[in-house]
Amino acid sequence: KQEVTQIPAALSVPEGENLVLNCSFTDSAIYNLQWFRQDPGKGLTSLLLIQSSQREQTSGRLNASLDKSSGRSTLYIAASQPGDSATYLCAVHPGGYQKVTFGTGTKLQVIP
Amino acid sequence: NAGVTQTPKFQVLKTGQSMTLQCAQDMNHNSMYWYRQDPGMGLRLIYYSASEGTTDKGEVPNGYNVSRLNKREFSLRLESAAPSQTSVYFCASRGTSGSYEQYFGPGTRLTVT
Which chain A positions have a beta carbon within 8 Å of B40's beta carbon? Predict the structure, then answer.
């Protein structure tokens, strides 16, 4: 059974700092890994999706990397802003019709 | 292009009442999902529909039923609501080719008293 872990559960950083969020998974047989952002009381917004054949994806100040062999993904946020404050979740997809497994998230607070 | 829509946004039920949560997507996706999100528990899959005409149980199906009405719509029904079903419910959809990117609706906050 796939297990997805996100450490730390919460993180508080001053504005402008570069930061890394971690996602670990136990079964390396994945099709893709998706990073989401969730604001309080809102739904999940897709940030980045990395296919298993890729090593990284970039969108603006966000960069996600994937190392299947070690079962790890990182989300790098450059020059953090208070608007980045949210909970970040990673989700692992095994492919086909199989279900996605979510991590429990990292709650990020960026202090002005 | 509205993506994934859900109704209602909020609902309060008394124990024993029934209700149906509606979900629709306009991305021509084959697969649709219902999740619940509870503090400390993360997202848990209730039911999913891999394609029109099929539904399957997820991790926590007890107390729920689903209907895949057509390719666009996937509803979740609580037949006899219990306080343990107080949660935030999310519907999601995903294509079954290409990137398999998953898209979520805005959620329904349900309170059962």
Answer: 104
